[in-house]
Design goal:
about 700 residues; alpha/beta; about 35% helix; Dna Ligase, domain 1; Rossmann fold; six-stranded antiparallel β-sheet
Length: about 700
Amino acid sequence: MSHTKPAAWLNALLRPRSVAIIGASDDPKKDGARPLRFLRKHGYTGSVYPINPRRETVLGEKSWTGLEALPEVPEHVYIVVGTERVLEAVEQAGRAGVKVATVLADGFAETGPEGRALQARLAETALGHGMRLLGPNSMGAANIIDRTPFTTNAAWEAEDLIPGGLMAISQSGSLIGTLLSRGAARGIGFAHLVSVGNEADLDVGAIGEAACALEEVECFLLFLETLRRPDRLEAFARAAHTAGKPIVVYKLGRSPEAQDLAVGHTGALVGSDRAADAFFADLGILRVDQFEALLELPALLKGRVAEHGRRDKPVAVVTTTGGGGAMAVDRLGVAGIEVRGAPSALLASVKDATGVEIKSGRLIDVTLAGARYDVMKSVMDGLLESGEFGAVISAIGSSAQFLPERAVQPVVDCAGHAVPLAACPLPQADRALTMLAQAGVPGFRSVESMADALRAFLHWTPPRDRMGPAPDLGALPARFDEASGLDLFDRLGVPTVFRRVLGPDDPIPDDLEYPVVLKALSADLPHKTEAGAVALGLPDRAAVAAARDAIRVRVAARAPDAKLEGWLIQAMVKGLGEALIGYHVDAESGPVITVGAGGIFAELYGDVAVRLAPVDLATARQMVAEVRGLKALAGWRGRAAGDLEALAGAVSALSTLAADPERRISEAEANPVMVLETGVAAVDALIVRA
C-alpha cells in the first residue's frame, strides 16, 4: 500500500474544496445544469460557484459574472460553454490561478487538423499558467467517497451512490456512467470515476500514476479506445504494480478494421491490437474481452499479486448441473485453460465421508447429491487443499435462484483459501451473487465472463524489465536496400547468409559456389517476390546471366518506377524450417518484436508471438516456444532438431533496435530466417526508416 502524498492537482481534480462552473445553465434539462444539480443532489460540502453573466441566479443559487468576481479562487473549474468560447475560458481560469480545468465541449482533435491545432492551443494555454487540463470532450470526474460528482454524465441522476475501492478511468465519457450503473446493480462500488476525453493534457497514464498514492483506491478499471501515450501508461503500470493495485482494461480494436498495417509482413501479422495485447501483458495489465468481466474480475484479484507460473496449473470445475458445468468447461477450454478432474484419492475420501460416489471425469459433477451441504463442502475443501489446481470454479444450478442459502453456503464457507475460488450461478440469481460478494467470493453472471476473467488472472505476471544497452550501429543509409539491411543485421548480431553485392552492370564473378540465389537490389522493392525480382537455385554462371535479364524485364513490367541499384547474389541455403523475425514500431503501443513461422505463408497463418521490445534471451525463448509452426523444429516425432536457441538469440538481437529510437527505424524484418541444425541464417532483410 502506498503512503505517498497525492499530487496537488489530483486533489483539486478529485476532492476540490471549491469549484466553479463556467457556463452553468438555469435549465435543469441541459447538460450545463447537471454539475450543479449533481453536486447538490449527492451532498457536496465545498463551495460551488455557478458562473453565468446573463443571469442573477442559476437553479435558485447566486450566479456570478466571472472568476474575477468570486470571493476565492476555485480549485477546480468545469467549463461547459460551446467550443468557440472554450479557449477564452481556459485563459481566464489560468490567469485566475485555478489548479485544474475540465472542458466538456467537443470539436477539437477528433475533427481534424484545425481541431488538433485548437486543442494544442488549449493545452499550451493551460500549462503556460501552471494549470492542469482535463479534456476537452470530458464528462468530468466523480469522487463517490467524498460525494463530489463534478460531472455531466446522466448516470448521476441515481438516488444513491455506492462507495468502494475501484477507480475507473475512461476515454469514453458515457462509459463512466455505464460502469457506475452496472456496478450499482451488482453492489459494486467505486472510489472515483474520471472521463479523460481527448487527453490534451491529463491522460490515463498521468491520472492513474498519481492515483496510485490514494489509499482508497484498490484496483483500476480502464476503458480505452486507443493508446495515446504508451510511455505514460507504462509508468502508471509500473507504479500500480509497486503499490499493489491491479489494473484491468477493456480496450476497443479487436476487429481487423481497427488495426494499422505496415509495409512488411510484421505490421500485418501484429496489427495494433496484437501489439496492444503484448503491451498490456508485458506491463502486468489484465486485459478482458467481456465488458462484464471488467467489473467482475477485481473481486478475484483482491489480496492477490501478479506472479509467474500460475498459467501452468489446471482449473477444477465442480457442479450440480451437468449441462451448466459442461458450458463452463467448454468456455474455459476456448480460453486456453486446462480443466482437470478431481484426484482419485479425493473422490475416495468423499465417498468414505459421505457415502456418495462421484464419477471420475474432467467435469466434477456431484449431481443431485451436491444439494447436501456435507457433500459439496467436502469436494470443495478437497479441491482447494489438493495443491493441484490454480483455481476452483463452482457452477451452481437452478437452486441458486430460489434457494441461494442452500446452494451457495458451501461455497461461501470455503472462502478465504489461498487457491482462488469463484462461482458462476447458471440461472438469474441476484441474491446468490449478493451472498457471494458479501463473503468475498467472486461471482460471475455468465460462463463467458468467468472464463475471460480467469484467463486474464492466470496470465497475470509482473511488469517485465525491457531496458538494455543500445547497440553501436555506426552510420546508417537514409534508405535501405536488402544488402544494406543484411549489413545492419550483421551489426546487430543477427546471423545472415553469405552474399556478394554487384553493381547494375558488374560482371558475374567466376568464383561463385553454386547453386545461388539472385535478387535485384532496390529500395523501391520491399517485396521482391511480388515484383519478380528473385531467382532461386541457379546452377551456374549462365543461369545467373539469364536470370538477371529476365528479372530486368519482370521488374520493368510490374514496378516500372523502381530504380535498380545493383544485384545481390546469395548462397542457396536449405534449412530444416523457416521463421520470421520482425521489429515494428506500432502507432499505439510503441516498439514490438515478433517471431513466427516464416516464408510466404507467414501473414496467411498469423501464427506469431509478440512482445514489447527489447527482449532478453529468456523472453525470446518463451516467444519461440509459443509459435505452433516452430514446434516441429524441436525434434518432433524423431525429426532432426533445429537450433531454436540460435533463433531466440536472433530475436533478442533484432529487438535491441528499440533501445536506440534516435535511429528512427520503424520496421526491420528478416523473412525468412533459415533454421539450421546448428545456427540460423537470415536470407532476406526489409528495413524501413521513419
